[in-house]
Every structure is written in structure tokens, then in C-alpha cells.
């Protein structure tokens, strides 16, 4: 998976809050005996994840399934759709 410009636009907002961008596989979470996922942003200390979803690539998908999967692994996940990124950034303290 390539990193999108939309995904990278959150980097200046999330990094000061303790999140790191995982790039193209710099961090992964593996379920016991199951699937492996690579989150977009991770705050290891607080066990929080931010996933940025494109409306083209993720159309028809249910973000709650991803949120629940991460929760089962002990992580809190927020899914941000690309058309919500600007509002999300403002809510997180960015400009």
C-alpha cells in the first residue's frame, strides 16, 4: 500500500500528540493465529491508532469492523475518512 497525501497531511497534527506515522510497514499488529494489520498512525504509549480511509479504496467497507478488530487486540482505533481529515485535524488541535 502506498502512502497517500491525505494520510501524510495529518502528520504535523498527530506527531506532537505522540503518534508516529508507520509509513509502508514500519509497525504492524498481528492477531494471535490470524490477520496482520499495518495502521497509518500509532501512539504506542496510549495504545491508540488512527487510520485514514480513502473514499475510493474503502468504499463499501464498514469501519466498525476495523475498530472492533483493533479493540480485540487491545488498541483504540479512530477511522478518519479522507473527506473528514480537515475537520479531524482542527479537532485534534491542528490548523
What is the tally of helical segments?
4
Q: Taking strands numbered 1, 2, ... along the chain, how are they ordered across the largest sheet?
A: 1-4-5-6
Gross morphology is: globular
**Main sheet specs:** 4 strands, mixed
* Class of secondary structure makeup: alpha+beta
Strand content: 15-25%
Q: Report the C-alpha radius of gyration, rounded.
A: 13 Å
For the secondary structure, the number of strands is 6
Unreliable residue stretches: none
| N-to-C series of helices and strands | HHEEEEEHEH
Report the mean per-residue pLDDT as an integer. Answer: 92
Q: Helix proportion of residues, in percent?
A: 25-40%
Question: Gap between N and C termini, in Å?
Answer: 27 Å
Oligomer: single chain
What does this structure look like?
The protein is 26% helix and 22% strand. By secondary structure, it is of the alpha+beta class. It is globular, with a radius of gyration of 13 Å. The protein starts with a helix and ends with a helix. The mean pLDDT is 92.
What's the helix and strand layout?
Layout: H1 5-8, H2 11-14, E1 20-21, E2 29-30, E3 36-37, E4 41-43, E5 48-53, H3 63-72, E6 76-81, H4 85-91
Parallel strand pairs: 5-6
Antiparallel strand pairs: 1-4, 2-3, 4-5
Short description:
This protein is of the alpha+beta class and 95 residues long. It is 26% helix and 22% strand. It has 4 helices and 6 strands; from the N terminus they run ααβββββαβα.
Which labels suit this protein?
95 residues; alpha+beta; two-stranded antiparallel ribbon; 6 strands; 26% helix; globular
Amino acid at each position: 500500500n502506498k502512502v497517500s497525501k491525505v494520510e501524510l497531511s495529518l502528520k504535523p497534527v498527530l506527531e506532537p500528540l505522540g503518534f508516529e506515522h508507520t509509513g509502508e510497514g514500519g509497525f504492524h499488529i498481528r492477531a494471535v493465529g490470524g490477520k496482520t494489520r499495518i495502521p497509518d498512525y500509532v501512539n504506542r504509549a496510549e495504545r491508540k491508532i488512527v487510520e485514514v480511509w480513502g473514499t475510493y479504496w474503502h468504499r463499501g467497507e464498514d469501519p466498525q469492523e476495523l475498530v472492533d478488530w483493533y479493540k480485540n487486540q487491545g488498541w483504540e482505533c479512530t477511522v478518519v475518512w479522507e473527506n473528514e481529515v480537515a475537520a479531524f485535524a482542527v479537532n485534534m488541535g491542528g490548523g
